[in-house]
Write a structure and sequence with these properties.
By secondary structure, this protein is mostly helical. The protein has 1 helix and no strands. The N and C termini lie far apart (42 Å).
Length: 98
């Protein structure tokens, strides 16, 4: 279980919580976002289990939530990202006859 970027999976090795404007060194995604928080739950109301927090509309963008706690979990790539790329390459191969 590691703390990592929600977008690319790069490990966050610094101690403590990331700052509001801190970004991933690999992909540039914001780190202090709902998608990296232990309270994030897509099935919960406002997609957050913490009832004290203010609603955040853009879960992938940095915010001012004072209840943010960086989640430690296993990295699992987003579903369909590899499949889309592979499908696009296959279509190009068919188009150009390769």
């Amino acid at each position: 279980m590691t703390r990592h970027c929600h977008a690319c999976g790069t490990d966050y090795t610094l101690t403590g919580q990331p700052g509001r404007l801190e970004t991933c060194g690999r992909c540039g995604a914001d780190l202090r976002v709902c998608l990296n928080c232990v309270g994030y739950d897509p099935r919960a109301a406002q997609q957050c289990r913490d009832r004290r927090s203010e609603p955040v509309l853009e879960k992938h963008r940095a915010n001012f939530c004072e209840w943010f706690e960086f989640a430690s979990r296993s990295w699992v790539p987003k579903a369909g990202t590899q499949g889309r790329e592979t499908a696009a390459r296959e279509q190009l191969r068919k188009l150009f006859g390769d």
